[in-house]
Design goal:
Strand order of the largest sheet: 1-5-6-12-11-10-7-9-8
Radius of gyration: 20 Å
Number of helices: 11
Structural class: alpha+beta
CATH architecture of the largest domain: 2-Layer Sandwich
Number of strands: 12
Strand content: 15-25%
CATH class of the largest domain: Alpha Beta
Largest sheet: 9 strands, mixed
Number of domains: 2
Shape: globular
CATH topology of the largest domain: BirA Bifunctional Protein, domain 2
Distance between the termini: 38 Å
Length: about 325
């Protein structure tokens, strides 16, 4: 008898789980449709230069690449659907005013996100194009939270961040593009304050002190944002970012059971350029939803627009719901 083995971190989905995933997929797509988000279905593969154009370049290491025998060109198996939806908005729909799109489909990643994680992620999400600033951010955060509630999750905890704050500090300190940036970025992301102190010791004091403070600026909104205004330089970029977080927190607070801010959350730094967020549920260490602003992703396809959105993992949601029932 053959013992059939699947590739590492690739799994079959058996009937009970498959049925639950399909119920979730349908419920979430119906919820998106009720909020005027229209369904699109991008292809599983694209020419590599299209798939990785613009902000999609950050997905390069996660993308499986093969030669198309029909054309001889390199094609990639998508590792994320969001850049494809941005291409559809910019290149195919090209609509005036706001465009609301949603999607559901599998993505394949070259490396699993962690121990026990699958490399084939069943992704579902929504993207809002053409709405700049806090109005778009509020809408997408509210949709992410209401979607998770529609899926059956309770005890939701929202974490907010803003990559513009680190960008402003990096630029002010003259670190943009320098070799030290990668080490400092990692130290901040892992909240390794001693490493941040060591890596910033030669910087002018105002920027050094702000970067050293950044890993400590996380916790309840009412405590963190006032502390950030004291600890960080009063530049327009930083003031605008903190004001955005203030407004976003005020709108989101009634929607969730707990709300925190983490100014050293640099997830998606090379992709996002504004407010970002993660949603957690009680008893789970990993976020059940992630999203944020990524203005300008469509520029590579001929139309730069404000953009923000979020993604969920259907298998993860099914697993969490199964353990909480």
């Amino acid at each position: 008898m053959h013992k059939w083995l699947l590739p590492e971190a690739i799994d079959d989905v058996l009937p009970s789980e498959a049925a639950q995933i399909e119920v979730l997929r349908r419920a979430l797509l119906d919820h998106f449709a009720a909020q005027d988000y229209r369904l699109v279905s991008p292809p599983l593969i694209e020419h590599l230069d299209s798939l990785l154009t613009g902000s999609g370049r950050d997905l390069d290491l996660q993308t499986f690449k093969v030669v198309d025998p029909m054309s001889g060109r390199l094609v990639g198996v998508r590792a994320d659907i969001t850049p494809q939806v941005a291409r559809i908005d910019s290149h195919l729909l090209n609509e005036p005013g706001p465009t609301r799109l949603c999607y559901a489909g599998s993505v394949l990643r070259a490396v699993a996100s962690g121990p026990g994680a699958t490399r084939e992620v069943m992704q579902i999400g929504a993207e809002l194009f053409g709405v700049a600033g806090i109005d778009g951010d509020r809408e997408v955060v509210a949709l992410a939270v209401s979607s998770l509630r529609a899926a059956g999750l309770r005890g939701l905890h929202l974490d907010l961040g803003h990559v513009g704050i680190y960008r402003a500090l990096e630029s002010g300190a003259g670190l943009s593009g320098s070799g030290e940036t990668a080490d400092l970025f990692d130290a901040l992301r892992f909240k390794d304050r001693p490493a941040v102190v060591a890596l910033t010791e030669r910087l002018p004091r105002v920027w050094r002190d702000a970067l050293v403070a950044l890993p400590t600026l996380y916790g309840p909104v009412a405590e963190v944002l006032p502390a950030a205004r004291e600890a960080l330089p009063d530049t327009p970029a930083i003031a605008n970012a903190l004001a955005t977080l203030d407004a976003l927190a005020a709108g989101a607070a009634p929607l969730v059971d707990a709300l925190h801010v983490d100014l050293a959350d640099l997830r998606g730094y090379h992709y996002h350029n504004g407010a970002i967020f993660s949603v957690f549920t009680a008893g789970e260490a990993n976020a059940v939803g992630n999203g944020g602003r990524y203005d300008g992703i469509g520029k590579a396809f001929g139309r730069s627009r404000p953009a923000t959105g979020f993604t969920l993992d259907l298998r993860q949601l099914a697993d969490v719901l199964g353990r909480s029932s």
